[in-house]
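Quick one from the shared queue. A colleague (R.T.) flagged Cation transporter as missing a structural entry in our internal table.

Convert sequence to structure tokens.
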Amino acid sequence: MGQGHGHGSAADAVSASGRYVRRLAISFAILLAFLVLEAVVGFLTSSLALLSDAGHMLTDVLGVGMALAAITAARRPVGDKRTFGLYRMEVLAALANAVLLFGVAAYILYESISRFQDPPEVAGLPMMLTAAAGLGANLVVFALLRQGANESLNVRGAYLEVLADTLGSVGVLVGGLLTWLFGWYLADPIVAVGVGLFVLPRTWKLARQALRILVQQAPEGVDVRELRADLTALPSVTEVHDLHVWTLTSGMEVASAHLTTGPDADHGGVLVAAQRLLSERYRIDHATLQVEPAECAKRCQALTW
């Protein structure tokens, strides 16, 4: 006997992501406008710190754009060719977001090395004013995406980018102030290096989370050995095999398993008990479980994977 359970959780995930489409669209427009502003002023003032902040805002724009496109695609109905839907588009967008961040951070760190040896003159006041405007834009987007970051890895990637960019804008403001008041041009590459170093570890964390989902590792916080033992301890269950637990996309954990039972087992009762266990103890609402007598389990032992 096999049964898939918990389709409502998939619908809930789509509904939750749908609530943030408008916020992502507004965030995209705001970030794009200030990206152009920072890039133009950065080139005109020769500010690497301002250009680095514009680079991070570029990843914000691309990240939010990918998040918006991925969520829109994920809301498309499941079809015969896409039996799991397009939920993984959100995870792919998060991974692409991380790759972009790595590239920008590496470029800024590389450019900063030459500027330590021969720092160019930087116009501190325009740098400060532009960074202040960018900081205001980041704070607005930060507020828009904050709640969604708790529900979606995809939105979290965009949210963390904006958080880093917000701190980067603060750093550019400080660097601009030091340059304007004291003519200390080394402040510009120092701020750029600081922003780059801040970005790298959180980028690695985001990439690791996305890769963990893409390679179908067990969700963090789920002990598969303990889960197997709990299923085996259910009444009438003698053995559990072909147990798989993975994440489809943020907030959508999935499991499948074969439960071997004794000769007089109530298969319907075993199925209900296993579903309740997975839902209440492990928060896995979508589980495909096959309840089978011992003679049927012999065929599974012959499989090589």
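Residues 14-214 form a domain with the Alpha-lytic protease prodomain-like fold (CATH 1.20.1510.10).
The chain has two domains: 14-214, 224-301.
Added to the table.
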